[in-house]
Amino acid sequence: MSAGVVAAVDLGATSGRVMLGYVGDGMLRLEPVARFPNGPVEASDGSLHWDFTALYGHVVAGLREAVAREPGLASIGIDSWAVDYGLLSGGTLLGEPFHYRDERTSTGVEAVHAQVPFAELYRRNGLQFLPFNTLYQYVTDGGLADADAALLIPDLVAHLLTGAVIAERTNASTTGLVNVSTGEWDLELAARLGIPASALPPLIDPGTPLGTVTGTPREQIGADVEVVTVGSHDTASAVVAVPLSTPNAAYISCGTWGLVGVELDEPIVTDAAREANFTNEGGVDGRVRFLHNVTGLWLLSESVRAWEAEDAATIDLPSLLADAAAVEGDVALFDANDPRLSAPGDMPQRIAAVLAEQGAPAPASRAAFARTIVESIAQAFAGALSTAGRLSDREIDAVHIVGGGSLNELLCQATADRSGMPVLAGPVEATALGNVLVQARAAGLVDGPLEALRDLVARTHPPKRYDPR
Ligand code: LFR
C-alpha cells in the first residue's frame, strides 16, 4: 500500500484544529495546520450559543492552508463534540447553534419524559441521561418546524462544503432518536415527540464519500477535495485511535469531558446499566461505545478562566499543575458530576460551596484547588471504570487515557492510584488520528478492522505508562 495525506477537521468545545495526516507504509503522523479557540458565547438575551460562523471561517481558512501545503490531499474528514445542531432554511443558517450547556434543556427534559418515560427511552435509544441530548433540545426549538434541515455540527460543516444533507451515524446516535438495536431513526419515537422529518436526514456510515467541495468553498479552498465521513462524534474518532493493549482494556477519552468505558459488539440496555447511567453510543464499524460521561477538565478550565479574570492575567497551566502535585496530605473530594458544576460560571466559588455542604473547608490556595479538582476527577474515573467492568462483565486490566488529559501527569497518576490499574497515556491527538485513520482506510492507504488501525497507533505513538502506587 502506498502512502498519502488527508486533512482532519476536529472541533472541540474549547478549541478547534485542522491537521494534515500522513498515512501508509507503516506511517501515521499528524501535522498541525491551524488551531483556533472555541467556547460558549452569551447572546443579549442570556442564552448560550456557539459562534459557528467564526468556527466555519477558521475551518475554511485551515483547509485552504492544508491544500496550499499538500495539493494532492486525498480527502477531508470532520468531527466535533456531539448533540448540537444548526437549522437551515433555503440554504441559510437560522441563527448560531445553541450550546448544549444552555439551560433551555431543562424544559425539554420535562416535556420528553412526560410523553416517554426515561426507562422506555433507554430501552429504545440506549443513551445515558444527559439533559442536553439532542431530542431534549429539539422539543424546545420553535425553529425546527420551519427548517428544511437540522444538521449536527460536523454534518453542517460537510453540508456547507459539499451540499450533502446527511446524518453521520456515530454522532446521530447521540441525538436520542436512533434505535439502539437497529441503528436506524426511531420514527415512531420522533412522531410521538412531534419531531419533524427535517431533523432526520439519511443516516450514513463513517468512511463514506460525500462529494467534493463545491461552490464558494471550492473557490476559497482552491482544490476539488472529496469530503469523507469519519466517526464524526469526536469521541467515536478518539476511540478508533485508542491503542487498546489487552482485550479487557478500558479507555478514557479525556478533554472537556472524561468519557470512561469499554468497546462492545452489542449494546447493554439492562436496568443496571440504566441505573448506572451508562450509554451505548454508536462507534465506527458498528461497535458500541459503552461509557459514562464524567465531567472532565471543564472543572479545571473553568476555574482557570475565573482566576484569569480575577487577575486580568493568563495562568500557566503546567506550573499550576506542578504546584498542585506538590500539595501535601489528603485533599477533600467532591462529586465531579454534580449538575451545579455544569454551566459556565465562577467554578472555584461553586466548588467551594459544594465542599462546604460536606463540611469541608475551601482549599487554601489555587494549587490546592487544582489538586482537589484533579483528584475528584480521578476518583470519578475510578468509580466509572469499576462500574464499566461490572456491567460488561469484564475484568478490566488496563486503562488508556487519550486526549488532552493524557498530558496531565497528575491526573494520569491519580487515576492509576485510585483505580488500582495501570494507566497507558496517549496519544494526545487521538481524535484527529481516528479521523485520519477512517479517511485513510476509505482511500485505501490502510486496511483491516479497527484492531489493525490501533496496532498502527500503538507502533507510531507508544503510550506512557503510570503504575498504581
Ligand atoms: C466530548 C463530547 C462528549 C459529549 C459531549 C457533548 O467532546 O462529544 O462525548 O457527550 O462532548 O457533546
UniProtKB/TrEMBL annotation:
InterPro entries: ATPase_NBD, FGGY_C, FGGY_N, Rhamnulokinase. Residues 250-443 form the Carbohydrate kinase FGGY C-terminal domain. Pfam families: FGGY_C (PF02782), FGGY_N (PF00370). Residues 8-240 form the Carbohydrate kinase FGGY N-terminal domain. SUPFAM superfamilies: Actin-like ATPase domain. Keywords: ATP-binding, Disulfide bond, Kinase, Nucleotide-binding, Rhamnose metabolism, Transferase. It comes from the Bacteria. Belongs to the FGGY kinase family. This is Rhamnulokinase family protein.
